[in-house]
Design a protein that fits this description.
The complex is a heterodimer of chains A (195) and B (552). With 195 residues, chain A is mainly beta. Helix content of chain A is 11%, strand content 41%. In chain A, the strands form two sheets. In chain A, strands 1-12-11-10-3-8-5 form a seven-stranded antiparallel sheet, with no helix packed on it. Chain A has a six-stranded antiparallel sheet with strand order 6-7-4-9-2-13, covered by helices on one side. Chain B has three domains: 214 residues, 3 Solenoid (Pectate Lyase C-like); 169 residues, Pectate Lyase C-like, CATH 2.160.20; 104 residues, Immunoglobulin-like. Helix content of chain B is 5%, strand content 33%. In chain B, the strands form six sheets. In chain B, strands 1-2-5-8-11-14-17-20-23-26-31-34 form a twelve-stranded parallel sheet, with no helix packed on it. Chain B has a ten-stranded parallel sheet with strand order 3-6-9-12-15-18-21-24-27-32, with no helix packed on it. In chain B, strand 1, helix 2 and strand 2 form a beta-alpha-beta unit. Chain B starts with a helix and ends with a strand. Classes of the chains: A mainly beta (195), B mainly beta (552). At the A-B interface, strand 3, strand 8, strand 10 and strand 11 of A face helix 1 and strand 37 of B.
């Protein structure tokens, strides 16, 4: 799959009103290249000690064809009613959903990026087999490179479409998840940053 | 279903699990200037004092000190008289063989133990170490005072030791009214990569400035194994290194000494300050049977008021191998003493290099061979060196505490001083050892730290699941008005344990480096380095990025 950059302005970015709230995206991934396989839709943020705090609220999942296998959570990650909140507070922060590939999978991402100076973070999205290897061509299908105070840079394969801005309802859902994430982050306080 | 998750996470966690299983059971504690001794001693809730830390710590434990000032206003004991001695810090609990108690600076931070506010009207030991199997590392120690008006004593001390098997590493001990580092007793102590400078005792009864050495080792008989390595002494009013009255052999190697015998920071002679770089032995001019043979090798002394290397009336011939003396008075003085008390030349000198100033005195009759002054086939000029500067020797140490790598006084390719030494059982390159402190003529590039003149942007990391390597970028934008043109070097200091920079091109002081041979970074321009890490334990990657520009 050929990688290409999509400038942020061609994607959708909109202010959500919160002091930290960053842009939100509706993502659709065509998993046809891995049709027939079972595997993981994987979200990963690698932590760095100098990174500005980041949270990615994931929700609005569609097209997940699971069999009841529980999602994987690692590091600074927590499930929510409709998805998960993934941070960068540990070295390895991961959320993964088990699914049968072949169809189109959709989800929303809402970023919450501390604008204060610090290192960046990248949310990677990959299709993985049961052992954690790439299920299709090597590499992520999608990555959001986040730097404090700048717009995200989105890198995606041809399998990914970012069709339109989320509907207001989705924005509302994202903001609700964001609020939940903040409460969870606050509750876990002292554990943040430990690898 | 559970098996799928287990399979998935197995590879990801295996290294981390193994790493955790391998951890020792020794405890780690933390102390911070803003801490409280009523706290838990954790990173989040540190203690406040080293005294409390010592009370809790057991052999094998590590106490980390966060950066900042630890200011002392009085000793742990009181002056019983004006000639008494008080300790500000008293380390009297010992570790064990293989299980030292470690008092270390928190990585990347500088804790400063400051005794200058003490008003105790007697002698002061800033850090008094009477315990053994201790390891002090990365601490800055300053200001052990004398009190004006009390001229009944000689020096106070920065760090004073009577224990054995202790390691003093990467300390910066300075501006004391007495020696910076003093080994009074004990065996098998290692003083490693320690700086001692600007020490001056203005209120000593024997004369202002006469007792502030950089390093003093004055152990008695049957106290073997004391070694100073990779140390620097400068701008102390007395001597750089002083082994007077030592009854056991002391080794000093790979160490530097300059500008002694002057008021600190000046070239004004202080009358009572002796001013030798390396004072290797002696007993106040008296003969003493059974005196040890000290060892001084691979050292550099320059610009000292008196001798660079001085035998100081020592009754035995000490070993002086591969030392460099420049512009001292003289560079080498081998004045010894015989049983009758008469002065003689004593010393075993091989492969030494003397240049500028008075080269030698009292060497006639000493066991001297293959030194620059007694080889007719060599002459010493500035062309023999990659750099002849006597400035810049106080440059920042490398990340692991080792000495900065400078071209100064290193031999240049084609020098007639190469391979002119004689084999004394120490490592060398070529057909024979070279003359002087630095072996070989490999080109050394001097770098200036440009980090303060750039803005750093550190990208997020991405994972390659096939290689398990993590990739990102480091970008430096030139915020100065200077163009950096030539070799640029990125160095990652204090990189997380267990994390390796895969695309490194070298290392400096234990830190990985990435060098660009022909770079140009004009004002406002940005230069980006790719960085690739191996991080099997999936730790949060931490490091301090530094950018260096080669000096022309």
């Amino acid at each position: 799959m050929k990688l290409f950059l999509r400038p942020l302005l061609l994607v959708l970015a909109f202010a959500c009103g919160g002091a930290w709230a960053g842009p939100a995206y509706r993502v659709v991934v065509d998993t046809g290249a891995a049709a027939g396989q079972w595997g993981w839709l994987d979200f990963l943020i690698l932590g760095q000690a100098a990174a500005s705090p980041v949270h990615a609220t994931l929700g609005g999942f569609a097209g997940i064809d699971g069999d009841g296998t529980a999602p994987i959570l690692a590091g600074d990650a927590a499930t929510t009613a409709g998805g998960a909140v993934l941070g960068n507070g540990a070295g390895w922060n991961e959320f993964a959903l088990w699914t049968r590939f072949g169809g189109r999978i959709g989800f929303d991402v809402l970023f919450d990026v501390d604008p204060r100076a610090g290192a960046g973070s990248t949310l990677e999205v990959a299709l993985l087999d049961a052992a954690g290897n790439y299920a299709v061509a090597p590499g992520d299908v999608l990555a959001f490179a986040l730097m404090p105070g700048t717009d995200p840079v989105v890198t995606a394969t041809d399998a990914v479409t970012l069709p339109e801005a989320p509907a207001p309802a989705l924005v509302g859902a994202g903001l609700a998840l964001l609020a939940l994430a903040r409460r969870r982050t606050a509750a876990r306080g002292g554990l943040a940053g430990s690898a | 279903m559970k098996n799928r998750q287990q399979l998935f996470v197995r590879r990801a966690c295996a290294a981390a699990i193994l790493s955790a299983a391998g951890c020792a059971s020794a405890a780690t504690y933390y102390v911070a200037p803003s801490g409280s001794d009523a706290a838990a001693g954790t990173l989040a809730a540190p203690w406040a004092t080293i005294a409390h830390a010592q009370a809790v710590a057991a052999p094998g434990d590590t106490v980390y000190f966060r950066g900042g000032a630890y200011v002392f206003h009085g000793g742990v004991n009181a002056c019983a008289s004006m000639t008494d001695t008080v300790n500000a810090v008293a380390l009297n609990k010992s570790g064990q063989a293989g299980k030292p108690i470690r008092y270390w600076a928190y990585p990347g931070e500088k804790p400063v133990f400051d005794f200058a506010q003490m008003k105790d009207n007697c002698r002061v030991k800033g850090v008094s170490v009477t315990g053994s199997w201790l390891h002090l590392k990365g601490l800055e120690v300053t200001g052990a005072p004398q009190q004006p008006g009390n001229l009944l004593n000689n020096e106070s001390w920065g760090v004073w030791n009577s224990g054995s098997n202790n390691t003093f590493e990467a300390l910066d001990t300075h501006h004391h009214m007495g020696p910076g580092m003093f080994i009074a007793k004990g065996s098998n102590n290692l003083v490693l990569n320690v700086d001692s400078h600007h020490n001056y005792d203005p209120y000593s009864k024997s004369g202002a400035g006469q007792n502030a050495d950089g390093f003093g080792v004055h152990v008695g008989a049957n106290s073997p194994g004391n070694v100073l390595r990779g140390c620097r002494a400068w701008a102390n009013t007395d001597d750089g290194y002083d082994f007077i009255n030592a009854g056991s052999a002391v080794t000093v190697e790979y160490s530097w000494a300059w500008r002694h015998g002057y008021y600190p920071g000046t070239t004004t002679s202080i009358p009572a300050g002796n001013g030798n770089g390396f004072k290797v032995g002696g007993y106040g001019g008296a003969y003493q049977a059974g005196a040890p043979q000290h060892v001084a090798r691979f050292n550099v002394a320059f610009n000292n008021k008196a001798a660079g290397f001085y035998a100081n009336h020592h009754p035995a011939a000490s070993y002086f191998y591969n030392n460099t003396g420049v512009n001292n008075r003289p560079d080498f003085n081998m004045l010894g003493v015989d049983p009758s008390g008469a002065g003689i030349a004593l010393g075993i000198l091989r492969n030494n290099l003397a240049w500028q100033g008075t080269l030698v005195s009292n060497v006639a009759g000493a066991d001297a061979a293959n030194n620059s002054w007694n080889l007719a086939s060599v002459s010493v000029t500035s062309a023999d060196f990659q750099g002849a500067s006597l400035d810049g020797w106080d440059a920042a140490r490398l990340p692991d505490g080792s000495l900065p790598v400078l071209p100064n006084l290193r031999l240049a390719a084609g020098s007639d001083l190469l391979d002119k030494g004689v084999n004394v059982g120490l490592p060398y390159e070529g057909t024979a050892p070279d003359l002087g402190a630095f072996e070989g003529s490999a080109r050394v590039t001097a770098f200036a730290d440009a980090t303060a003149r750039v803005r750093v942007a550190q990208s997020g990391l991405t994972l390659n699941r096939a290689t398990q390597q993590m990739s990102g970028t480091l970008s430096f934008t030139n915020t100065s008005t200077t163009t950096f043109d030539g070799v640029l070097m990125l160095r990652l200091d204090a990189l997380t344990d267990g994390v390796a920079l895969v695309n490194r091109t070298g290392s400096q002081g234990g830190a990985p480096t990435l060098t660009l041979g022909a770079a140009r970074l004009a004002p406002g321009q940005t230069l980006t380095f790719p960085v690739v890490f191996a991080n099997p334990a999936h730790a949060a990657v931490a490091y301090t990025p530094r950018l260096f520009a080669a000096l022309p």
